[in-house]
Structures are given as C-alpha cells and as structure tokens.
Amino acid sequence: MARAATRVASRAPVKPASRPARRVATRTAADRRSSVSKRVVPKVVPAGGPSTKRSPSAIARAVDPQNATVAGRRVVKLALAVLVVLVGIMMAVVVAQTRIAENQMQLDRIESRIDGERDRYNQLRLERSLLREPARLVVEARALGMQPGVGVDFTTVDPMTVAAVLVATGGVDPELLTDGDDPLREYGDFKAIVGGAP
C-alpha cells in the first residue's frame, strides 16, 4: 500500500507550489519509544552562574596533550638546571685542581731553593773547617814570619788591681768589691777544668 501511494504521488502532475512536497513517513511504536528516550532535557543553571567543571582524573590529565607539553617543559627545565649545576661543579673542581697544582709547583720551587741553600751552607762549613785547621794555621803563620812559643810563663796579678781595672772599664759597682774574695777565682776554676781550651 505504501508502494501504491508512492507510485500515485509520483505520477501526479506537478503543480507549481511555493513549498516542496512533504513526504509522509509512517512511525512504528518502537520509533516512538526511542524518540522519547532521546529527548534532550535542558540543564538547570544556578542563579550564581555556571557550575564549575569537575577536575579530570589523573589518567585524563596524563593523556591531555596540554598537560603533557607542560610536563615535558618541566622535565626539560629540570634537566637543564641539573646540567648547569653539574657543569658549575666541574668547573669549580677544575679551578681548584689548577690552584692546587700552582701551589704545588711553588712549593717545589721553594724546596729546591732550600736544598740549594743547605748545600751552600754545608760547603761553607767545610771551607770554614779547612781554614781553621791547625796544620794550615801553622803553615800560614810561618809564611808570615811567626814562630811557635818556647815556653809558658804565668804572672800573678793582684785581685785589687784587676778589680780597679774592671771598675774603670766595665762599670762594676765599687761597693760590690770586697778585699776577701778574688773576683776571677771562678773563672780560674773553670779554666782549670777545661784545661785552657777556648
């Protein structure tokens, strides 16, 4: 029947009309039920304005390209910061090692100068001991016309004379001088122990 109505409608003469012809469609009960369930129910907006959006889940945030870009930037910034810190630490270590090497070279130069001065000191001591050698002194004295002494004569000096000379030349306080003690007795005792050696 629907075919017959369609054929009849297609054979009918076309009248000039301002509106196009509408097709008549038949609806079944199932169609009506599905259209009722598909109706759009308008949302009620509160008077204060639109409601705030719920925050997306952690998975949605991880998948979101904008958040992925921000996370990528953060990782790049963190990596650059770590790189800059590492380069700074390496440069500080290089500078410290350079300073240590310079100081070590300076210490080596000072130690070599100390060794040279020690060698020179030892050489001068050797020359001094050679110059003070008694056999050499005898040879030099004979070259100058000196002769060794034949004997030794000791002369005794009055202690008061020695004291008067000491007061006149050394500034010894005259009140400290006494007639009883010899002021040079200790010196004479020491010379007797040493045996006359200087």
Structural account:
- By secondary structure, the protein is mainly alpha-helical.
- The relative contact order is 0.02.
- It has seven helices and no strands.
- The chain has helices spanning 2-11, 29-37, 58-63, 65-131, 134-143, 159-170, 185-194.
- The radius of gyration is 64 Å and the shape is rod-shaped.
- It has a domain at 63-131.
- Helices cover 63% and strands 0% of the residues.
Notable traits:
rod-shaped; 198 residues; mainly alpha; single chain
Average pLDDT metric: 75
Distance between the termini: 160 Å
Strand content: under 5%
Shape designation = rod-shaped
The description of the largest β-sheet is:
none
Q: Helix content range of the residues, please?
A: 55-70%
* Low-confidence runs of at least 5 consecutive residues: none
What's the helix count? Answer: 7
Element order, helices and strands? HHHHHHH
Query: Would you tell me the structural class of the helices and strands?
Result: mainly alpha
Number of strands: 0
Radius of gyration: 64 Å
